[in-house]
Amino acid sequence: MKKVCLYFQVHQPYRLGKYKVFDIGNKSNYFDDKKNKEVMEKVAKKCYIPTNKLLLSLIKKYKDKFKVSFSVTGVVLEQFEKYAPKVLELFKELAKTGNVEFLSETYYHSLSYLYSKEEFEEQVRMHRKKIKKLFGQKPKIFRNTELIFNNELANYVERMGYKGILAEGADHILDWKSPNYVYKAKTTKKLKLLLKNYKLSDDIAFRFSQRSWKDHPLTVEKFVHWINKSPGEIVNLFMDYETFGEHQWEDTGIFQFLEKFPDELISNGIEFVTPSALLKHESKDEIDMHSFVSWADVERDLSAWLGNKIQVSAAEELYKLEKKIKEINDPALLEDWRKLTTSDHFYYMCTKWFNDGDVHKYFNPYDTPYEAFITFINILNDMVYRIKNKEVETKPIKVPITEFPSKTLK
Amino acid sequence: MRVLMLGWEFPPIYSGGLGTACYGLTKGLSHHNVSVTFVMPTGPANVKGEYVNLLVADKIYKDKRIKIKQIETLLVPYLTSRAYDHEYALSMKKNGVSGILYGRNLFDEVYRYSERVKMIAMLEDFDVVHAHDWMTYQAGIKAKKASGKPLILHIHATEFDRTGGHNLNQYVYDIERMGFHEADRIIAVSNYTKSMVVRHYSVSPEKVTVVHNAVEFKEGPDYKIKKTDKLVLFLGRITLQKGPDYFLEAAKRVLDRDPTIKFMFVGSGDMEPRMIERAAELGISKNVLFAGFLAGDDVNRAYHMADVYVMPSVSEPFGITPLEAMKSGTPVIISRQSGVSEVINHVLKVDFWDTEDIASKILALIHYKVLNNELKHHGLLEVKKFNWDIPAEKCLRVYEEVKR
Q1: Do A378 and B364 touch (CB under 8 A)?
Q2: Is residue B219 part of a domain?
């Protein structure tokens, strides 16, 4: 019996406000609360609330035959609590049905694995705690930020006690293999690898409303037929939750699609599963992945966040502050610092689109990626100032502008 | 395709931004098999133009077909009429009563040029007339009437740009407006300029084609400039349009934060004395240098010396200087109120009035080395992609559409 695993990623960053050089030492509220609230309220209305409600009604209707899974970042959960408590309530209801599985990830949707294993583990722990508290679940499956994955990460995650991990079913991972089986990560003892079927996933996530696509409009019948035709045992459909109502607007018919999806699938004899149910499957083969792979862009690598020098520099400067910030025991400062680890801040500094003249294709709260960098570094500069001030405690020091790249703080 | 092109300057005789653009465009057109006869108002006799058949209006047909005495002219393309009056008065003082040597005012000069062009248009063979900026528009209209050939007006700047929208010269505005309405097609150097023309001159948007300027990339010498101070550069006419006052206010804000940085004005203009005064008022004279007008290699040297180039223009139809700076590997900050900001990405953009933002970005470029290097590197790559063949091809398409 063929199986389908639906997995949705839910995330919103804390976007930064305007922060000029002159704000260094004078302003320590870095985040654009107004904008974050606005975005949250908008997406809640267009996507989170209607989709959660729809999933609840589908679970009610099909009982144990319909299942979905989520990973919901800590930062988006906080913002639900603050700006859209209704969404959180609905997620809790979903958790109570027993047919919804929550996965582990870093609390801050960060690239911390690449820079600090210590911080990575702490953020994963924070996230576990939050999921346990809100939804009463202890995740067995891990998904790293943006599905960033390689052998070493697989080992690390296995040692942390996870039984399975999600990754992109990129062509260069799979070679001739099909993503439609469970695999084992090569260097691990028995960590199960669940690979995204990117063709079928992207048919919904990206191409659903694309009029130039030869298969537009996408009907449920057509799509289920493709799933049936697709070789192997499982089809992993992994996508951003915002696909529903936000990336694909309501008038594209995306909600009707989702509504009819379980019925069509079940009547074709296909079963819904959650990731942990797939742990029982035998591994078809081993996957050996030395370099990092992700689910972003055509490159499916790290270049969306760390593809140019300003991105790398911003990340390095950020993690240079980690040790000091943890030493001085200032919870507010640590929390601000952690909010800056969110990968979106680095994504906004991406310039590779420019070279294709493809500037308008991606959303960016900044005018230019350079603006994103300046804002970020100005804020780091303020953090350096806060750290130094904390160290001398009694008399505040004169506001400096620290040169970047900097030497590690003494 | 044969084009009668009307302009004010052409290298090597005089080369401001307009001349450079005309040169690049005619070179690009020559690659598309377009033959151009370029007419300019004045210059030495027997001058040869590269890529074009260059005619100097006041040197040909003299005394034969045009009954205007050959005169020396004060005309340069960027003069506002007020500035011309000023130059005129100066020359009167210098030459005493021999002031009759010069045209009484700018508009006589424009008229004189148009009469000569009318004669040329009757004698030359061409398919279209292509005229650059307001001083040639009358000439363009006359050439159109004399030959029956279509007229294309190319806007590099309008009276609104030159004056910032205050105290427009009504006469210039009228010439521009008449030109736009007589023209068969209009070419604007940016969407910014197109919207300006549509808004202020009630021209139908369908009549206006946008053709962005380009820049020629030549591998320059390595100037090997040794310097200790960080330098922020302003390069252009020191006039209201270019926003020198905003540059200075930003300098003050920067210096409050980092008093080691130097600022340099390269160029001259009617606001220069005021700027010198203002720097003193702000107490930053020590850090603000006035280099005066520079040309040729000295300009390149200035770009190379600078750590940051700022173009804070109040209204800039295109703005070629940021591209020149990028060619020299100097990161740039440009006003959003410019045409060039539509076509470049690897720069920092500001609103000209937001001097705090300008200052903040100057400080970032000086202090964040990675940012400076990244902009330098990518700016150079980006500017290398510019090429006059592209705008030339767009002009050719316009010619073909209007050709009768």
Answers
A1: yes
A2: no
